[in-house]
């Protein structure tokens, strides 16, 4: 039986609207940049960067897509983060995106190294627009597994926070390691692809500040099952963890039922 130390509440979109009236007004997007990155060999990493319409250096959120997906499949969620003032970048992974010439689900084990390469490339290509001291990672499904890898066996010391949507640990789990970084898990209770037990098991292995958002009626796509809830909760998580926004931190328990471990 799972040890339910977490208060995993999921509010309806209507309740969310009532709780979020004191949130900062969004900013508009300044558009996108496309970068043709390549880690060598058979690892081309065409990457899109969404930039907010905001002067100066901004935090960067690195996003990893799921199997047979692509970054544009998550446009609504990524746009919400950009509108809040964050740069968001996402590559198409060479062997797991939906038009991969040689599809290989097992290639997910190589994606944390791809992620580190892309983060470096984006920071260098957008010098002055990206704040390298405020970088985070997020991902869905296989991208969530990739994200867990970036905080465990392939720890990237640049990462200040992480978001795992419908994700679990790698097939051969490694301990979470390095400097503590807050992690938010978002999981549908009815997910039969990455099960609730797998996601909660990964959460239980984290010794850092952490939170777990459960969607009781959600499946493998919680960001589509309740887009308003997931967008609001994750955006406030970024505002707090990357911008040290105390007001955003204060809103989180009302929006997502976070544990007192965050």
Can you put this structure into words, describing what you see?
With 262 residues, this protein is an alpha/beta fold. The chain has a single domain (13-256), classed as Alpha/Beta hydrolase fold, catalytic domain (Rossmann fold). It is built from eight helices and eight strands, in the order αβββαβαβαββαβααα. The protein has helices at residues 13-19, 75-83, 111-125, 142-150, 196-204, 222-225, 227-243, 246-256; strands at residues 29-38, 44-52, 58-64, 87-91, 130-140, 159-165, 183-188, 210-215. An eight-stranded mixed beta sheet has the order 1-2-4-3-5-6-7-8, sandwiched between helices. Strand 3, helix 2 and strand 4 (87-91) form a beta-alpha-beta unit. Helix 3 crosses helix 4 (142-150) and helix 7 runs antiparallel to helix 8.
Layout of helices and strands, plus pairs?
Layout lengths: L12 H7 L9 E10 L5 E9 L5 E7 L10 H9 L3 E5 L19 H15 L4 E11 L1 H9 L8 E7 L17 E6 L7 H9 L5 E6 L6 H4 L1 H17 L2 H11 L6
Parallel strand pairs: 3-4, 3-5, 5-6, 6-7, 7-8
Antiparallel strand pairs: 1-2, 2-4
The residue-averaged pLDDT reads 88
Radius of gyration (Å): 17 Å
- CATH topology category name: Rossmann fold
Number of strands: 8
Largest sheet: 8 strands, mixed
Domain count: 1
Helical residues, percent: 25-40%
CATH architecture: 3-Layer(aba) Sandwich
End-to-end span in angstroms? 23 Å
Structure classification: alpha/beta
Described by its quaternary structure, the protein is: single chain
Order of helices and strands: HEEEHEHEHEEHEHHH
As laid out across the biggest beta sheet, the strand order is: 1-2-4-3-5-6-7-8
* Low-pLDDT regions: 1-23
Individual helix count? 8
Bulk shape: globular
Name of the CATH homologous superfamily: Alpha/Beta hydrolase fold, catalytic domain
Estimate the strand proportion: 15-25%
């Amino acid at each position: 039986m799972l040890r339910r130390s977490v208060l995993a509440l999921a509010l309806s979109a209507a309740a969310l609207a009532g709780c979020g009236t004191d949130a900062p007004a969004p900013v508009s997007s300044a558009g996108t940049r496309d970068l043709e990155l390549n880690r060598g060999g058979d690892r081309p990493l065409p990457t899109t960067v969404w930039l907010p319409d905001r002067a100066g250096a901004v935090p960067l959120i690195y996003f990893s897509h799921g199997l047979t997906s692509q970054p544009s499949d998550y446009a609504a969620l990524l746009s919400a983060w950009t509108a809040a003032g964050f740069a968001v970048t996402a590559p198409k992974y060479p062997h797991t995106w939906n038009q991969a010439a040689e599809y290989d689900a097992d290639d997910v084990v190589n994606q944390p190294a791809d992620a580190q390469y892309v983060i470096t490339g984006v920071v260098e290509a957008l010098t002055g627009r990206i704040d390298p001291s405020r970088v985070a990672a997020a991902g869905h499904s296989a991208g969530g597994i990739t994200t867990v890898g970036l905080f465990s066996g392939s720890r990237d010391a640049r990462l200040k926070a992480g978001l795992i949507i419908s994700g679990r640990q790698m097939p051969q789990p490694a301990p979470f390691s390095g400097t503590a970084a807050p992690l938010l898990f978002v999981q549908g209770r009815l997910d039969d692809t990455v099960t609730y037990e797998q996601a909660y098991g990964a959460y239980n292995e984290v010794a850092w500040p952490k939170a777990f958002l459960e969607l009781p009626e959600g499946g493998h796509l919680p960001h589509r099952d309740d887009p308003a809830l997931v967008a609001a909760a994750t955006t406030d998580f970024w505002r707090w963890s990357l911008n040290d926004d105390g007001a955003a931190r204060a809103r989180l328990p009302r929006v997502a039922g976070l544990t007192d471990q965050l």
